[in-house]
């Protein structure tokens, strides 16, 4: 069973077995505008929570994607190299950015579910 969570940095995490897929939320891509480039992490990179894992450049701004958990990058979405617009058209589906194998036990208490995330967006924090 897949579980989906959200962060205050407007990233989503989809957890299936022991692999975490990470991307940006629909709200985040709306704020960025048209994405023109993405720099992906290296497969095999060991990341510590808070590390910059990817950089997204849009016509409006550049934004960093910080990894929300400790782990090793096991896959990247290479389709984004040639089609960065997938982050705009399907940010929570084909526009996933990278997958991580957690190095610690995966603690989800600090993440929000969809309802909590919507309230967070609506509050304007």
UniProtKB/TrEMBL annotation:
Its cofactor is (R)-lipoate. Binds 1 lipoyl cofactor covalently. It comes from the Bacteria. Pfam families: GCV_H (PF01597). Belongs to the GcvH family. The glycine cleavage system is composed of four proteins: P, T, L and H. This is Glycine cleavage system H protein. It comes from SAR92 clade bacterium. The gene is gcvH.
